[in-house]
Amino acid sequence: xxxxxxxxxxxxxxxxxxxxxQQFSLARVIAVNKNSFLITDGSNEIFAxxxxxxxxxxxxxxxxxxxxxxxxARVFNEESFAVIDGLLPRKSLLKRKMPGKxxxxxxxASNIDTAIVVQGLDGDYNLRRLERYLVLIxxxxxxxxxxLSKSDLMxxxxxxxxxxxxxxxxxxxxxxxxxxxxxxxxxxxxxxxxPKETYCLIGSSGVGKTTLxxxxxxxxxxxxxxxREKDHRGRHTTTRRELIVLDNGAMIIxxxxxxxLGLMSDADAVDESFSDIYSLALNCRFRDCTHTREExxxxxxxxxxxxxxxxxxxxxxxxxxxxxxxxxxxxxKRKKDxxxxxxxxxxxxxxxxK
Length: 354
Known about the structure:
The protein is an alpha/beta fold. It is 33% helix and 21% strand.
């Protein structure tokens, strides 16, 4: 067993299957393609595919490997090809609702210690979108960090106003502003990355994730694209989720820009991200208060007194409704999938091949 795998720590040591290790070795997924994977055994990068057994047993996107996963793999052809037969339990998982109308999860990355949200101090800056990111991160059992890029576009006082605005909403959130054009700023950001820990960069296209990554690597390893002046959006520079190891041993998973951030999170994750509102709601007169028109609603009273902004309140209500709706839809879908699976097994059992 190779314990030199990047990111393999005490959490995983006690969660390995000794029986499986007699046939397979451990590896970490560093990139996911459409029908294949790139894994590392700590020394080599190896092209890999899933075994037939793995494909047969998987019943949900949650069952498939994602960048950051530790897997059981068997290597062939002088370490040029491998098959993946199973996953180790995940320490953390970053996921969202699949874009579009389909009600299912899309996995972003796993086994992350810190998720870094990057927002540009231009037209990209958006508190409501930040709240969505924080719900996703907290549900995944991951520490959040916010980087405000393009600080050269604003005066110091304007940046401080933005940071104060964020800290009023999320006091415990670490916020760092920087410019990729300023060497001292980049050094400040570089110091945030702890050796042997795994980080994930998330944010909209054009916020500077790829530029930052190139700066941290001290080379133009990844191509960048200019943002559109009209709406400050960029084209997808990053096309897949990929794990990169920095010189100090810290690992970063870069991700494509996200334009849809649908939530299928548990209500507890929303409450945790809106801890100020949750605390106020405990003082509502009725335990099942809907916070819409009830007499004695502590949230509505706080809005009247100016203690809670209507924008943050509306964001909380919207995210809670969205989360509950998609959770119910997903559970109904899973129930139908299980019933269909039982029917297929029953048919196969009663009509065996001759």
